[in-house]
Amino acid sequence: MRYRHAGGSTGRKILRFVDKIAKSKYFQKATENEYIKKKIAEVSNMPLMLSVEVLELSGTLTINIPPPPTDRIWYSFREPPRLDLHVRPMLGEREVTFTHVTEWIEKKLQCEFQKVFVMPNMDDLYLPLMTSGLEKPPASSHSSVISSSHQSSMESQEYLSE
Q1: Are 64 and 100 a contacting pair, CB within 8 Å?
Q2: Is the pTM of this model over 0.85?
Q3: With contact defined as beta carbons under 8 Å apart, do 77 and 119 qualify?
Q4: Is there a contact between 110 and 83 (Cβ–Cβ < 8 Å)?
Q5: Which of 119, 122, 84 is nearest to 103 (CA)?
Q6: Checking DSSP bridges between strand 61-64 and strand 123-126, what pairing results, if any?
Q7: Residue 71's CB: how many other CB atoms inside 10 A?
Q8: What secondary structure letter does DSSP report for 72?
Q9: Strand 82-91 to strand 94-95: parallel, antiparallel, or no bridges (unpaired)?
């Protein structure tokens, strides 16, 4: 099963539209107004929060415990799991209730989850109890799996910023 990115070209179109408006001489003139400057400052300083509730996560999880010496356990889903999320974005004290916005955020989070936690990508847990206690844990032990997961995360962050 292949997952598509939600809102790819539509998001770029909206950003281009917003850029056009911001560059227009009328908008530039309006931003010189003191009342509008004050409101823009209020919006710019408003906290943005996102609450995510996982309603269901079900699928076949693979756990890889490498032979000693190791201090990590690797895990991943074999196939994309059933993931049911409920997001509540908040802008300041107000909850954003636009269905299009919340659905878009949920799709983005589901897509990111697929990129990080579904094979061939794996995530790991550091478990100090699996070492003898005599060795110091390595500052950073990168394997191809970590690099793959990290690269996927970086690509996802780039995509989200588009």
Answers
A1: no
A2: no
A3: yes
A4: yes
A5: 84
A6: unpaired
A7: 19
A8: E
A9: antiparallel
d(C-alpha 8, C-alpha 18), whole Å: 16
User: Residue 157's pLDDT is what?
Assistant: 45
Quote the CA–CA distance of 6 and 99 in Å, as a whole number: 14
Q: Which structure tokens are listed for 94?
A: 């107000």
138: pLDDT confidence band, cut at 50, 70 and 90? low
Sheet with 72-77, side-by-side order of all strands: 61-64, 72-77, 123-126
Residue spans per domain, the chain:
9-45, 47-161
Is-contact 85 52, C-beta < 8 A?
yes
3-state secondary structure (DSSP) of residue 28: helix
What is the C-alpha separation between 151 and 157, in angstroms, rounded? 10
At 114, list the tokens. 């697929």
Residue 159, pLDDT above cutoff 80: no
Sort residue 49 into left (φ over 0), alpha (ψ -120 to 50) or beta.
Answer: beta
Q: How far apart are CA 24 and CA 77, in angstroms?
A: 49
Average pLDDT, the chain: 76
